[in-house]
Write a structure and sequence with these properties.
Order of helices and strands: EEEEEEHEHHEEEHHHHEEHE
Number of helices: 8
Structural class: alpha+beta
Radius of gyration: 20 Å
Strand content: 15-25%
Shape: globular
Distance between the termini: 29 Å
Bound molecules: (3R)-3-hydroxy-3-methyl-5-(phosphonooxy)pentanoic acid
Number of strands: 13
Helix content: 25-40%
CATH topology of the largest domain: Ribosomal Protein S5, domain 2
Length: about 350
Amino acid sequence: MEEFFGSKKYKTANAKVSESCPSNIALIKYWGKYENQIPANPSISYTLSQCKTNTEIEFLADEKFSVQTFLSSTEEKKFAEKIEKYFKNIEAFLPWILKGKYIIRTENTFPHSSGIASSASGFGAIAKCLMEVDDLFCGKAEEDFKLKKASFLARLGSGSACRSLYNGLVVWGETKEVEASSDLFAVAFPSKDIHSIFKNFNDWVLLIHEGEKSVSSTVGHGLMTTNPYAERRFQEAHENFSTLKEILKVGDLKRFIQLVEHEALTLHAMMMMSEPAFILMKTGTLAVINKIWDFRKETDLPLFFTLDAGANVHLLFPRNKDEDKIKEFIIKELLQHTQNNGVVKDVMRF
Ligand code: PMV
């Protein structure tokens, strides 16, 4: 299958391309992987609208291979080293990639220190740019193929990035529940199988803790190899997929809430059961979760949460007649648990 994305004849020239890619938030989480970024279980995410990375790549042909990166106009040497390594790693799929110098300018639409994963939108945008350059050097490819290969390349940069190439609900990892699903790239979950209630959702990200995480995702994924609960977790993710598929079809919001929160807590439970154990939630994370549960009990309104590998809380709620009451509650009761009144208001992109 990987040969499908393999090398072609090419002719390089100076080039400049720019692309934009949104971030995504997983509902069924990817946590644990095998060699070459193969996920240990299938995952599914919502693609966001506002949290995006905009990237411009300038390619100078005939110059020695090197990478220079600027994040919001500031040179970032560490990021350049990471990208150099990544480019060397994908040469089998883009044979021209080491034949020039790169100047990469990138900016995120969300605050840099927010703790919102920029690797998904970041590698998504780079992979899209690379496919544009590939078109210039190898001849125009079909849009479907370009998207699939961009997802394949993004995965090799950061696993979850491969899901950011598509809108709506996006699946990565082979599962019998989704036709054409693959460990190598993501596919869009069929829109016809999603009830309308799940197509119009808010995601407000509460910035509980801004700044670096104490344990990176790379280390976290690695610790799943010795986690005694890992195999059961991978199996459960498969089971949750078939449950979620049914929920999405029939529009069962109550079971959706239950499943999504369970997935988020399972992710963090896995961290706590790792050896060495680690905890990325903060006091504010737990306070918010408890307040959400109390709010639901009192009002029966559909406000719920998911978490990524950090302390921030993604507040999910449908865009409908109830949303104003929910927003009011968030501002009045939950915002106080953030570090600097930080909230990023986003919606799902369909
Ligand atoms: O793509 P990575 O290596 O940053 O891992 C992301 C893992 C989670 O965000 C916790 C879950 C997911 O599926 O996105």
